[in-house]
Every structure is written in structure tokens, then in C-alpha cells.
Here is the input.
Amino acid sequence: MALSRAHELPWWRSAAIYQIYPRSFADADGDGVGDLAGVLARLPYLAELGIDAIWFNPWYASPQADAGYDVADYRRIDPLFGTLEEAEELIRRAHESGIRVVIDVVPNHTSDQHPWFQAALAAASGSPERERFWFRPGRGEAGELPPTDWQGFFGGPAWSRVTEPDGSPGEWYLHLFAPEQPDFQWEHPEVRAEFEAVLRFWFDRGADGFRIDSAALLVKDPALPVDDPEERARTDREEVHEVYRAWRRLADSYSGGRVLIGEVWLPDPARLARYLRPGELHTVFNFPYLECPWEAEPLRTVIDDTLRLHTAAGAPATWVLSNHDVDRVVTRYGRADTSFAIYARHHGRPVDLALGTRRARAAALLTQALPGSVYLYQGEELGLWEVETIPDALRQDPMWERGGRNPANPGRDGCRVPLPWSGDAPPFGFSPDQATAVPWLPQPDAWKEHTVAAQAADPGSMLSLYRAALRLRRELPAEAGLEWVEDVPTGVLAFRRGEAFACVVNLSAEPVVVGVEGAPLLASGPVGVDRSLPPDTAVWLRIET
Ligand code: NOJ
Here is the structure.
């Protein structure tokens, strides 16, 4: 093969990581909710897809107030999903299939059902039990006002008032997300020690790494600034880096290349880079790329900024189009405004699904051709769209209620609908034939054409494109950076990776002639015999050397 790949690089520097949202992947026990046995049964699907690792959204014991991001026990699996033994077997069997396993860790907050929080509620104001959280007296004559005017990320106040053990209205506690998710006090040595123990617990069971939820938020300004115009200034503090330096030492003390991936949703690239300093996190998610509109110039700028930033930090870039918090790519790219902002969704606006699908195909090839690691969210490989027709009564995301039931920004349920595997009608093989419940969110009837079974046999399907791309991607020179080809029409992105590979993407409204030499390896749409590339189409080329 002319395209060769350096094998000695740590796996996470170039991995394709598939995100599994356990409740929506595959339901083996028929209760309408996905589970670990469902994932185990589908490991061959993942191996055939050609991914290097799985990242699991939280599978821990949880009251599920925020779909598992409210963890009541960091060392147990929620019975909804299975048992600890099943998790261990899943890690083992994934490894046997050549697939690494990254799990979510949620350190910023816990569940209000966590024993530490229950103990804090039962203890008095000023007690050691309350010091692991952010308990404060209220303002106003009788403490009836929250300590600050901070708003939570899901909407509504970031403080809730407790009833003291004697029945009187009492102190307030901080929760940057839902009230069921009290924030930990990360200056407390027991909190730090507990999470290091949790990391060890899972590393000892074979976990290859952690995706760190809300990674910039952990340490807050103890002064609780009341009218802080820059919302996140009260977090993203230097002290959080002490935590990650300790975690990095821990991760590096294990063999096999364990990875720490930060969910750092900060718009400022310089601040982002601070999490990638030597001895801190290995990688962070690339949200600027995810949020970027489908337009050549902004994309090129994000790609250049990303590579500059990561190269300077010695970290690999990551490329992310989608996850369980954002509108599906096909829908985003099928709207007039193709940018994305988590708190300003555009549900209800017209969507051209055919256009969105064409662009999502081209974006898949662009993304997978870039140097670094890539994430793909389950269902992206099937070209699933955002389900905007979920009846309000079935919505489960706390963003819906706390955000004031806003139809234009109804939350994240629409990207979390259970996957279609086979058959002509819901549950499309997501649940077994003898299921006792319907899928926890309704699947659109039109997904009958988007099942794995329907797509596997169709060489023109999104699934076939992903399979081919992920396979070829393994042969790309992982160590090679990106070199732009400058002499291309406006609206075209073209670049080389090493001597033998090039990628050309036409984001303009007109067909263009591929000006780069080389034989097409894979294309997201039809390439003309005259080498013309239609709008919203990408092609990979092999350059003979
Ligand atoms: C980010 C996670 O991706 C999201 O799903 C969750 O609601 C918040 N963090 C709070 O844990």
C-alpha cells in the first residue's frame, strides 16, 4: 500500500472513537431501554465498522434525572443497563475485538441520592458532611433568596434550598445543572481522594481512559461573585489543573496508553490549550469545529486554529461533528443556518434532509481525513436526523422543563432516539421481538430505510461510506500533518496528508473540477469522468509517488 501508517504512536493520537449512548444503542432485555447486553451482542457490528475505541456515556447507578449524569454510585452499574460483571465482560470482549473502552467520569457534580449528599442533608449547617458541597445561607431577611443570582446551564436558578432535619427552611446548595445534581467542593481533600480512587477502580478493570464531564467547571471562585458578566470566570480556575496533573500521573502509571479526554466547552482557544499543557489532559473535544457552519472559510480557519493550538501543546487534534447534546448533523446541515449553538437551537425551522445528508456525507470524509483523532456519535454512520416530532409528554431531557418548554430549543431528546437496526417498523430491532415495552423515545417510521440491515447491503448508503472511510483512514499516515492546496476555486477545501493522500471538498454552489492529481479512493457523491465534483461533495485521492 502506498499509504503507510506509523504504528508506534499512542493509539489515542489517531483513533476513531465511537460514542455509545447506552440507553439508545441496543436493548437486549426488552424493557425499551438499551443495555450492556445489547452492546455486547453488537460488538461484531462495531468491529466491522472499523472503529478503534468506544466511549460510553455514563452507565453508573443513577436516578437518571439527567440521563445518568447524576451519579449515585461511581462503582456500580445502573440496573437499567446491567451489572458490574457485565461491564467487566464488555471491556474484556471489546479488547478481544481490538476495541478500547473509554468511560465517562462525572466529577463536577453528583446525584442528590449519593450517600455523601444524603449525609449532608441529614447533618447540620456547618457540619463536615456539608463541606463536600456548596452549602450557603440565603440572602434576604429570612434567607429566602439564593446566595447569588447564578443561573444553571439548564435554565432556572443554580441554587436550591433545603429543608433542615428539624423541618425548618434552611441553607441553599449549588447545582450548575439540575437540582438533582449538587456540585462537589473540589477544594475538599476527600473529594479529590475519592475521584482518584474511582479512576483507579476502573483502570484496574481495564478501562482505557476517561472522558471528563464538564471538565472546566470543577473549581469555583470561593468568593461567589454575584454579578459576574463573564459567566464562566467563576470556574475554569487554575486550581482545576492541579487535579488534572494528579490524574495524569495516575493514568500514566498504568500501562497500555490510558487517556484523559476533557469536555472543555470554552470558546477561547488559549484557555482551552491550558488543559493540554504537558502533564495535564491528553486531548480535549473540539467544540469550535462542531459549532462551525458548513462553509469553506470558517471551516478552514477552525482547522488551522485547531492544528496550531494542538501542535504547540504537543497534543493531537480531535474532530467532532456530533454528540448526545447537539442536534444531529444531517439536520443542522439541512437548515439555512448551518452553525450550532447549544442554547440556541433552531427546531421547527425548515430542514432539507437530502441536502443535509449530502453535506453530512462530505463532512464525514473531511473530518476523517484530518490529522488527529475523530469521534463519531452512534447513528451518525446511519445518517439519522434530529427527531423534532417527539410529543412533549414523552420528552425526558431536564432542559425541556427547566428551559421553559421552548419548542425552538426543546433540549436534547431528538438526538437520543434509539437506533434502528432492522425491520420495517419500530422498534426496528432495537428491542427483541418479545419486548415488554416500546423504545423509551419513539422512532420515526421513515427510519425503516435507515436501519443497519437496510444500509449494510447498499453500497451507496451512509453506513457503507463510513465503513469504507474508517477502513481507509487506518492506512493514512497518522504522523503526517495537513498541507493546504492553495490553487483551488473559492468555496473548495483541498489538502494533502503526506505524499500519497489528498482530500478535496466542494462547499461551493457550483460543480468544480478536482484540480489535484490522483486517483479517487472514495467519494461522498458522484465524481464525473471529467473529474467534476458536485456541490457539497468530498473526494479522497491517492497520489502515485
Ligand atoms: C455534559 C454532558 O455531555 C451533558 O449531557 C450533561 O447534561 C452535562 N455535562 C452535565 O453533566
Summary: The two ends are 11 Å apart (CA to CA).
